[in-house]
Design brief:
9-stranded mixed sheet
Length: 467
């Protein structure tokens, strides 16, 4: 009979204080678990075009019909019923499915063509219109979800059901960190916006180790909750405590998950206030992004903050801007949304290019679905709303190996169905991973007996979008 093994004091402390889940120590620019992913030693499946991502998520579902998908036929037939031949029996939400009338609603804003690409852009987006030749506009996105929570969860985790790792967490796991002073994955949310709720699980790690989850930076004097030292503990004492804890556990401070978090928090006490302080930005920067960039928590300030984070080695920055869910009073509401986001979104692309960062930074703009071509509720001469529409909508990308000046995909003259080059959510995810040097079919994590990936069981790299 083999006698039981008793834990000595060091083993006991190692298992209880440090936890039993150990992950490899990461130095900047290295990737974890490369063997499990089947990658070569440099952590990539193939040569990468991008090494950083800024995802400008427009939460609520911007209307493609008021932004990038010009449909003059809707104005010509404004007020007429949506033809059955166009709807083709497709499902509607409960919010408009019981309407006795589905009147077509033309956009109340002018469109014009811009740049050498001839992209149609609404008058609501004058700053974006000036940079269309730097963008790849996809007008044929589609998704499977018709309501907000499953739709945004699908975009950011690859599943409509909560619990999977977020896109940023997958990238942190796959590619590792480029900085020791800031998280690899940072989230910024426009302050004071209403609309559909945002949940921390949208930037969570799911079943991946917690070290890969996103860290939200908030506006104001306390960007990260519980980061500051408690009264009576100064920075020098905190350093001694961390050193003593590492020595007591007999662990490399960067190797154990719990210790790695504490070490990062210690470094962030200096790095976060520095990156959040915009006072060192010249007046030309604020002229580019707009005066809102001087106000902490605005979309413009967050866009500028995103550039600063990338400069300091953060790999994935996700901005969330709520308020695009315009079931009613759309003309006034979307005008406000575009005024809050247009200049800063375009400025970010220009700023990155001026600094020589756009070539290896991928910028993505879009929401979780589009809007219907018919009015939800009563259509009047100057007011209407639009319901959720997963069948077709628009997004744009720039930099990081994307083909600039590209208009990809087409929808029918009613703006209801895709007629050429559809792009599924998993296709977009596969393409983003490809640009970062990752084969989406090989980025996996085994959990509860199944191998999971961001693109689930399908998805294709959209080669026509690549430079």
């Amino acid at each position: 009979m083999i006698p039981p093994r008793f834990l000595d004091r060091r083993d006991f402390l190692r298992r209880t204080l440090g936890g039993s889940l150990l992950v490899p120590t990461l130095s900047p620019g290295t990737a974890p678990l490369a063997g499990l992913l089947g990658r070569p030693k440099d952590g990539l499946h193939h040569a990468a075009k991008a090494k950083r991502v800024i995802y400008l998520f427009q939460s609520g579902g911007p209307s493609q019909l008021e932004t990038f998908d010009y449909k003059p036929l809707l104005n010509e037939r404004n007020g007429e019923q949506l033809p059955d031949s166009v709807r083709q029996g497709q499902r509607l939400t409960g919010m408009s499915g019981n309407q006795t009338s589905l009147p077509l609603a033309g956009a109340q804003f002018d469109f014009a063509q811009y740049g050498e690409s001839g992209a149609w852009v609404s008058e609501l987006l004058p700053h974006t219109a000036k940079i269309v030749d730097k963008l790849c506009i996809v007008r044929s996105m589609y998704t499977e979800a018709i309501n907000h929570d499953p739709a945004i969860t699908f975009f950011l985790t690859g599943s409509q059901i909560a619990g999977r790792p977020s896109m940023g967490a997958w990238l942190s796991y796959a590619l590792g960190s480029m900085t020791q002073d800031l998280p690899s994955f940072v989230v910024l949310v426009t302050q004071g916006k209403g609309g559909q709720p945002l949940y921390a699980r949208l930037w969570g790690a799911g079943f991946l180790p917690a070290r890969y989850q996103g860290v939200q930076l908030r506006a104001g004097t306390d960007p990260v909750l519980y980061l500051e030292n408690v009264p009576g503990i100064d920075r020098e004492r905190r350093r001694r405590m961390l050193d003593a804890q590492a020595e007591l556990q007999g662990l490399d401070p960067g190797g154990d998950t719990a210790m790695a978090k504490e070490e990062l928090a210690y470094r962030m006490q200096e790095s976060v206030p520095e990156v959040a302080d915009l006072s060192d930005e010249p007046k030309e920067t604020f002229a580019l992004y707009g005066e809102d960039a001087r106000k902490p928590g605005t979309y413009a300030a967050n866009a500028l903050m995103a550039r600063r984070l990338l400069e300091r080695g953060v790999r994935f920055v996700q901005l969330f801007h709520q308020g695009w869910d315009q079931h009613g009073s759309l003309p006034g509401a979307i005008r406000t949304q575009c005024r809050e986001t247009d200049q800063a979104s375009a400025a970010l692309v220009q700023d990155l290019e001026q600094r020589g960062m756009l070539d290896d930074t991928l910028v993505v703009w879009g929401g979780e679905f589009g809007r219907t071509n018919y009015s939800q509720g009563k259509l009047t001469a100057n007011n209407y709303g639009r319901d959720h529409h997963p069948r077709c909508f628009s997004m744009w990308m720039a930099g990081g190996g994307i083909k600039p000046g590209t208009i990809y995909g087409e929808t029918d003259p009613f703006g209801y169905n895709i007629t050429a080059h559809p792009v599924h959510v998993h296709d977009l995810q596969a393409t983003l991973l490809h640009l970062l040097g990752i084969d989406h079919e090989r980025l996996i994590w085994k959990y509860q007996g199944r191998r999971f990936r961001l693109t689930d069981v399908h998805g294709h790299v959209m080669q026509p979008l690549l430079a």
